[in-house]
Design a protein that fits this description.
Layout (H helix, E strand, L loop, with lengths): L1 H35 L5 H6 L5 H21 L24 H32 L7 H28 L1
Helix pairs in contact: 1-3, 1-5, 4-5
Length: about 160
Amino acid sequence: MKKLSITIILRILLIISFALLAFMQVKATQLSQLFLDKEISYEYYREHDINTGWFTVIFSILITINSYYTNYISKKRNNGRILMKEIVLPEVNLDNDERESEITGKSAKAAFSVIIVATFIMLIIFALVIPYLDNPLPYSVFLIAALPIIGLLTYFITYKVLYSR
């Protein structure tokens, strides 16, 4: 359970850092486009310039940690190759435990169902909110990034509840 928790936390942090990086890139591109179209002055452009360097560093560090942890925790064959089915969620061992296979199946079904329902709800809410936003593009990045986070959290909570029974 500890390995599953660490894996899910690392992947959620990776998704959040990617969403922040993409959000900042979109904002910087829009600011540059306004400057190139001469809608804003150079002073305004320099004053509100967005530095994406820190987000790139954080994203790179999280990719490295996530890759190392996935490689470290994954089961390997005798020749050192990683079993590909273990990369998705390394905690799950479907071959040895019938109860764990059932828990994993139910958790995956619950996560998939929640993602489908959440997608529908988010699209409706976003469609209703678009007229009130000046520029909806950066916010759509967070909307898209929220879906896998919701799925991972649903999987984790369902797995934990079913495993504790």
